[in-house]
Amino acid sequence: MSKNFDVVVIGGGPGGYVAAIRAAQLGFSTACIDEWKNAKNGPAPGGTCTNVGCIPSKALLQSSEHFEHAGHAFADHGIEVKGLNLNLGQMLARKDTIVKQNNDGILYLFKKNKVTFFHGRGSFVKAGAEGYEIKVAGAAEDTITGKHIILATGSNPRALPDVPFDEKLILSNTGALAIDAVPKKLGVIGAGVIGLEMGSVWRRVGADVTVLEALPGFLSAVDEQISKEAFKLFVKQGLSINLGVKINTITPGKKDVTVEYTDDKGNAQKAVFDRLIVSIGRVPNTIGLNGEGVGLKLDERGFIAVDGDCKTNLPNVWAVGDVVRGPMLAHKAEEEGVAVAERIAGQHGHVNFNTIPWVIYTSPEIAWVGKTEQQLKAEGVAYKAGTFPFMANGRARALGDTSGMVKFLADAKSDEILGVHIVGPMASELISEAVVAMEFRASSEDIARICHAHPSLSEATKEAALAVDKRSLNY
Q1: Structural contact between residues 438 and 369, judged by C-beta atoms closer than 8 angstroms
Q2: N- to C-terminal Cα separation, the chain
Q3: Of 66, 72, 350, 454, which one is the catalytic site residue?
């Protein structure tokens, strides 16, 4: 087998494996190196997203939502459930099965697209006339050469200073997905995506969940009207969300964790939790890459420095995904991976950061694309807004989930859609229409004039677009 490749991708997460497949489709001899291991030490490509992020969290969110519906919502549908019990072991096993299916699916795609896979940690050795020499440290050490290198090494969870993750009492996203017994009291530091999703999972199956957030506002990146609605709904569900908190000390014991903090009124507080999830963000992963050995430049925050085309300071070395600037989103990484492969082929790869959707998979879901109302105000942009509540949507009533709304923001003069924000059922699916519309620079009138199936949740999107011109039909 040849050890010389046109393209070598280091990292098999969403950005890396997609970049490798697209490069192979374009006719390049391509290798992908990934070190993730399954329980049997076999290859587990897919990165954080597949192994301890997007995929397993959605599996547990779905399972826990079914459990909550069975205990609280089925009766409204005339479905009586007696003797409801939680089999947490089966719930976790199902999650693990779904993860393995995705791992195996990626390996199959590599084989289908003739991508050579190496299981191990990839690192730079040196640059040479034929390209870059890359060491693969796995069960056996190997060395390969690539003319082009795509770095897709992802990110790691950020720990609190002097409070390392032990994944038993103090948990990152990895440990939060594998708690072997429902904790009576669960603490969550950080009210971001991971904190809210994991807090929701364990609350639904019986944990008393307290969320401690340092910022004074809730979900400050979200449109303020949407975040206020979401906060109200989460608190109603039973999540205790404390804002403006300053963490003072965290003391792990033998069976619990004590957190001393100052609340938003300046009062000293103390809480004891059976488990503590720390979800305060993620940091770029360049550990063991030996970038310094070939002069790879990092920025002041430790990300690999790239230009607008994802080129690093080294010739023919590219970087995508969480390890570079921009949102740490799996789909952003995928788009960059495809774009880089196409740029290597001399094509014009395209990534529009203004139309990357964001989703929080709580219940209700939160999804948005484009500018928030507070951003438009800060930028001095004249805009019109239209909202439509799901309580006025027939399909939402039939589903039994009428919480939340759809909100449109459009330019006051041109009517071009500037942002769409949703809190409510299936927001993650509904947001795609807004992404398409914004990518083609559609107006709110365009969406208002498109026929939407009845009854469907998507009608709320049409109605919100109509509301921009104050002519909603059903509210």
Answers
A1: yes
A2: 66
A3: 454
